[in-house]
């Protein structure tokens, strides 16, 4: 499927290249490389992680790209009249070796980014960019697609096939197929430059997460921290050669609990500043200049392609369609969320004033927000999430996710040990349907480590298809939980449990896929729809069935007490001001950056000005400050698209109300409809039609305000 090749974080420097003769020799020697061969083993073949040699990546990409382009040229040069089968289906099947290689290398850049991988990525990224351009700028191939797009044959195709033709043709146009030769050449230069800049941006973020550590030498400075947090900090320090100290690493999974529980205000400020100033320190890993270049190139590319801004170009194929539509939804929520923040801060300030007076008095600052929010939660709802955490065992929650998948979609999970993995932390499950048929494989990589990017995500190693015969998907969930010591139970926070279910929702979207063509499979849907299934699955975490069976105390085995469950329910809308504003500030800055008509943008200045203009409260930051905003600067994928979480949450809130009105989140009729109209259909239908079929009407966006307690 070479036409839809996309690559995670792309880079900024080319290493010295060997001469053409050496390159050809390397390619010919790659014939026996496991990186290029079809995957073997059980379950229709699995990634051969145990045989990967990173030093073969560059030559393997050269060979795979050459093969993919030969296949594309064969399609373009076909002397027979263009048909759906000999052109569109043939393109769906082209580039299989490159797809497999890209899946393996993508795991290395995301999960194993150490040693030579950053330099290899800087070589490979521009190659993939150039390859993509050569496909989209192939005049003969585009002529065949255009003929099918305008032919009578199209009317006889199925809805999914027509959608595939439409999407493919429009994608070619949006990628420059109708430009003249000089414009195409400039577009390729822009894409190559962006590919290099994306990689440099990503590598800088990784470096700042690795190299900045807040060291704590005195145990008295750990006051307020739960034992599990202190133990994780002790292990992090030992891994870094300081067994007598405690370490707060520069990742959200380490920063967040420290800011929530630490009584040491100066240390909270230090940890906060270290985290939120990533790649904004004026050193060799500062990203500001890279961002200026990325924005300038995106602006030029959009103009070249005939769009007013980068945002207009990106949103054309989304549900929202225009930047104006995204801003309308965000502005509907923003003032209510800001007002809620002011209320939350007032509650915090009352507690701070009662605790501290005179010279010790404080005004709530960003590094105080999480700490005093917990105090307010205890005061208002008598809820201390520290009391909940002993009931949130990672492994039991994983079992809870499997239970939900079984109840909703009839899936069961069997652990397997007959497949290779890329790290000892990784485990694999075989996924079966109600009849015992293979559905796919699910890989789980839960723990933080050096070389692994922060956050949580889902990856598809192989997508589902059914062109010649059924192909089952292989997907993974990747997180950054702190591993326990020997025999120690891994406990996670409530927010992390929500994220765990969220990412599993993406995995289920891939596993439940039931389409014919791979480019329409699973999560291959518009960016502002892809978060809908995952955000919806979050709602099953706090269902009684999961809470009572799988939220059990790690020592006693007793279920979470009903009293605590009631408190969690009562406090479900607590702190929504913080959660909504920190997210929306990032989404609004993203959209304004990509609709700006400025030729050169100073990222720090633009961020500051924009936050002032929209009335950003001083007491909290953007969730992702611009210098480390990987969603929008490590690739094009979420650029001008960070709003999509809110757009999808409007769908989510309305869909959740359907289950509430049915009286159960396990209602069999609704679960069946959810599978048929959302989880299984991929991009074979317009997502608005799929939601309408599930809900029986268009989305009611006021459900979003009700969900967040703003109405």
Automatic annotation (TrEMBL):
<dbReference type="GO" id="GO:0006508">
    <property type="term" value="P:proteolysis"/>
</dbReference>
<dbReference type="InterPro" id="IPR024079">
    <property type="entry name" value="MetalloPept_cat_dom_sf"/>
</dbReference>
<dbReference type="GO" id="GO:0005829">
    <property type="term" value="C:cytosol"/>
</dbReference>
<dbReference type="GO" id="GO:0004180">
    <property type="term" value="F:carboxypeptidase activity"/>
</dbReference>
<dbReference type="Pfam" id="PF01432">
    <property type="entry name" value="Peptidase_M3"/>
</dbReference>
<dbReference type="GO" id="GO:0004222">
    <property type="term" value="F:metalloendopeptidase activity"/>
</dbReference>
<comment type="similarity">
    <text>Belongs to the peptidase M3 family.</text>
</comment>
<keyword id="KW-0645">Protease</keyword>
<feature type="domain" description="Peptidase M3A/M3B catalytic">
    <location>
        <begin position="258"/>
        <end position="709"/>
    </location>
</feature>
<keyword id="KW-0479">Metal-binding</keyword>
<protein>
    <submittedName>
        <fullName>M3 family metallopeptidase</fullName>
    </submittedName>
</protein>
<dbReference type="InterPro" id="IPR034005">
    <property type="entry name" value="M3A_DCP"/>
</dbReference>
<keyword id="KW-0482">Metalloprotease</keyword>
<dbReference type="GO" id="GO:0046872">
    <property type="term" value="F:metal ion binding"/>
</dbReference>
<keyword id="KW-0862">Zinc</keyword>
<dbReference type="InterPro" id="IPR001567">
    <property type="entry name" value="Pept_M3A_M3B_dom"/>
</dbReference>
<keyword id="KW-0378">Hydrolase</keyword>
<dbReference type="InterPro" id="IPR024077">
    <property type="entry name" value="Neurolysin/TOP_dom2"/>
</dbReference>
<dbReference type="InterPro" id="IPR045090">
    <property type="entry name" value="Pept_M3A_M3B"/>
</dbReference>
């Amino acid at each position: 499927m070479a036409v839809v090749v996309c690559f995670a974080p792309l880079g900024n420097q080319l290493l010295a290249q060997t001469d053409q003769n050496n390159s050809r020799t390397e390619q010919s020697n790659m014939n026996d490389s496991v990186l290029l061969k079809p995957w073997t083993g059980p379950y229709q073949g699995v990634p051969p992680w145990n045989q990967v040699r990173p030093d073969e990546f560059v030559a393997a990409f050269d060979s795979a790209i050459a093969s993919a382009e030969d296949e594309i040229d064969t399609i373009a040069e076909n002397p027979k009249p263009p048909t759906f089968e000999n052109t569109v289906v043939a393109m769906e099947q082209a580039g299989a070796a490159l797809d497999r290689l890209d899946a393996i290398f993508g795991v290395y850049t995301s999960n194993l980014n150490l040693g030579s991988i950053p330099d290899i990525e800087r070589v490979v990224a521009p190659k993939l960019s150039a390859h993509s351009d050569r496909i989209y700028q192939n005049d003969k191939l585009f002529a065949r697609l255009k003929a099918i797009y305008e032919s009578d044959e199209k009317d006889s195709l199925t809805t999914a096939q027509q959608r595939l033709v439409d999407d493919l043709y429009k994608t070619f146009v949006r990628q420059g197929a109708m430009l003249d030769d000089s414009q195409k050449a400039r577009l390729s230069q822009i894409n190559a430059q962006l590919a290099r800049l994306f990689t440099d941006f990503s590598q800088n973020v990784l470096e700042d997460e690795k190299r900045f550590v807040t060291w704590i030498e005195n145990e008295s400075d750990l006051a307020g921290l739960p034992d599990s947090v202190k133990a994780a900090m002790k292990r992090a320090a030992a891994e870094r050669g300081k067994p007598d100290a405690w370490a707060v690493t520069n990742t959200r999974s380490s920063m967040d609990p420290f800011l929530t529980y630490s009584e040491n205000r100066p240390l909270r400020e230090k940890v906060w500043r270290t985290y939120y100033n990533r790649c904004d320190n004026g050193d060799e890993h500062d990203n500001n200049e890279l961002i200026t270049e990325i924005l300038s190139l995106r602006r030029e590319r959009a103009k070249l392609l005939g769009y007013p801004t980068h945002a207009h170009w990106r949103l054309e194929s989304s549900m929202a369609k225009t930047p104006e539509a995204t801003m309308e939804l965000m502005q509907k929520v923003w003032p209510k969320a800001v007002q809620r923040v002011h209320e939350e801060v007032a509650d915090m300030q009352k507690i701070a004033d009662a605790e501290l007076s005179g010279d010790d008095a404080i005004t709530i600052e960003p590094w105080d927000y999480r700490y005093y929010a917990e105090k307010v939660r205890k005061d208002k709802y008598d809820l201390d999430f520290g009391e909940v955490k002993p009931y949130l065992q990672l492994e039991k929650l994983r079992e809870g996710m499997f239970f939900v998948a079984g109840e909703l979609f009839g899936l069961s999970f069997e652990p397997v040990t007959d497949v290779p993995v890329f790290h000892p932390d990784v485990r694999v499950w075989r996924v079966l349907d109600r009849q015992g048929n293979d559905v796919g494989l699910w890989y789980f990589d839960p723990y933080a480590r050096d070389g692994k990017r922060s956050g949580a995500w889902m990856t598809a190693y192989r997508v589902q298809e059914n062109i010649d015969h059924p192909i089952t998907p292989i997907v993974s969930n990747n997180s950054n939980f702190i591993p326990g010591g020997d025999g120690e139970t891994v406990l996670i926070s409530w927010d992390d449990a929500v994220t765990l279910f969220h990412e599993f929702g993406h995995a289920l979207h891939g596993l439940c896929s039931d389409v014919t063509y791979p480019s329409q499979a699973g999560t291959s849907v518009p960016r502002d729809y892809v978060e809908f299934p995952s955000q919806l699955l979050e709602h099953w975490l706090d269902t009684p069935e999961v809470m009572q069976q799988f939220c059990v105390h790690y020592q006693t085995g007793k279920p979470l007490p009903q009293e605590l469950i009631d408190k969690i329910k009562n406090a479900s809308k607590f702190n929504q001001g913080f959660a909504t504003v920190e997210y929306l500030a990032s989404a609004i800055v993203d959209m304004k950056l990509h609709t700006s008509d400025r030729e050169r943008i100073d990222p720090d200045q633009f961020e500051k000005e924009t936050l002032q203009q929209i009335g950003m409260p001083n007491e909290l930051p953007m969730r992702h400050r611009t210098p480390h905003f990987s969603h929008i600067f490590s690739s094009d994928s979420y650029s001008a698209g960070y709003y999509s979480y809110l757009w999808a949450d409007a769908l989510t809130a309305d869909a959740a109300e359907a289950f509430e009105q049915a009286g159960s989140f396990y209602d069999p009729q609704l679960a069946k409809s959810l599978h048929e109209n959302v989880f299984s259909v991929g991009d074979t239908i317009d997502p608005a039609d799929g939601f309408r079929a599930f809900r029986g009407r268009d989305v009611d966006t006021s459900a979003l305000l009700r969900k967040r307690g703003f109405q």
